Amino acid sequence: MSTPDVAGATGFGLDAAPLLSRSTVDRSEWLRDEDTAQLWAHGRVLLVDRKGRAPVLEGDVLDHRPTAEFGTQPPPGAVLLGQDDGVSYWALRAGRDGAELGWRDLRNAGALLGSVDAGLLTTAVGLLSWHDRSRYCAVCGAGTRGVRLGWVQQCSGCDREEYPRTDPAVICLVHDGGDQVLLARQPVWPRDRYSVLAGFVEVGEALEACVQREIREEVGVTVSDVRYLGSQPWPFPRSLMVGFAAVGDPEQPLHPADGEIEDARWVPRDDVLAALEAEGNAINGLRLPPGVSIAYRMLRGWANTPS
């Protein structure tokens, strides 16, 4: 096996901050111990349905409703998202299916929202999803209730406290040290959609070790020079995507994991640039991830940094 020449190829990074990492609201822990009535009185509420959809107004801004519409105190299930410019932002699970109302989710609206709104909806989707899945104590099985304005679930039986869970996953751009990048597609993806490789971190595993294991398991390639690029919350339902770059040898045979990876191939830089310019349309059988994903930022960073 030849050794890739990585000289000059390790300087690329994300071309910009991932769009779901732009939260600017103050989410300091001490806010959750402040006077609830005061926070509620000077607040706005974001409704989110069970599929993560929220109302988006013209101009691509979220429809935050005055707290007064919901009563003088936070209703059951309300969670504090944070504070910005003296306004406290809350989230509440909607009683209706947002599809009937034309609401939109992070996948199709996240890239259009401003920094405040992108951060609010990302946090709301993840936090409300955690509450939906944490109604019973993992130790004694008794019911739980939300405390500290939605940031803790407390058991009604043994008083055990549980905090919002995030599942870390690695996502890695594998390149050859020159002008090729390794892309793959899952069978459930839209036609021609290819992206970089990703997988969940296992118990007792370092992030760098997960990168090497996942690439080997998914396409049969051994990688080196693993390097951190950045991260992005991905609340589907509660992941954190931790981005890396690594170097692989294009002479190694590709062995896509059966049932998980439909196809994998090395793609020249020019083809990636053309696909990026196509903005979601397929070029020569290649369609790249949408702009809301960290994968898009990784590919743009690599493609626009000559080796």
From TrEMBL:
Keywords: Hydrolase, Magnesium, Metal-binding, NAD. GO terms for biological process: NAD+ catabolic process; NADP+ catabolic process. GO terms for cellular component: cytosol. Its EC number is 3.6.1.22. It catalyses: a 5'-end NAD(+)-phospho-ribonucleoside in mRNA + H2O = a 5'-end phospho-adenosine-phospho-ribonucleoside in mRNA + beta-nicotinamide D-ribonucleotide + 2 H(+). The keyword Transmembrane does not apply. Gene3D superfamilies: 3.90.79.20, Nucleoside Triphosphate Pyrophosphohydrolase. It holds the Pfam family NUDIX-like. It is an enzyme of class 3 (hydrolase). Its cofactor is Mg(2+); Zn(2+). Belongs to the Nudix hydrolase family. NudC subfamily. This is NAD(+) diphosphatase.
